[in-house]
Amino acid sequence: QVQLAESGGGLVQAGGSLRLSCAASGRISNSYAIGWFRQAPGKEREFVAAISWRGGSTRFADSMKGRFTISGDNAKNTVYLQMSSLKPEDTAVYYCAAAPNIWTKNYDSWGQGTQVTVSS
Hints:
The chain is 0% helix and 53% strand. It is built from no helices and eleven strands. The protein has strands at 2-7, 10-13, 18-26, 33-39, 46-52, 58-60, 68-73, 78-83, 92-99, 109-110, 114-119. Strands 2, 4, 5, 6, 9, 10 and 11 form a seven-stranded mixed β-sheet that branches. The protein has a four-stranded antiparallel β-sheet with strand order 1-3-8-7, with no helix packed on it. A hairpin with a 6-residue loop joins strand 4 and strand 5.
């Protein structure tokens, strides 16, 4: 079982940047991937980006390309989501999750989430 803990959320002005962290612990297979999702009030949870635990392959939701980047530090067992040019519509609770590979939709371990609020 993989345990995940997000951090780095907060209040930021539109146009600003924020870096979220996802610290992973437990048994993580080399084939695993860590993904970021977000859920805004009254909306469904949506995929943001994912990165393979080893190898660095990445995927992004089309709407996030160019503003968000995802990276990993294996030595720290941490995955980062760097967000820039933030917009009020980016306001949401951001979650990280683990999946058996980067292409599946079956994420089986989830963190508690971290709130990101972008003011206009």
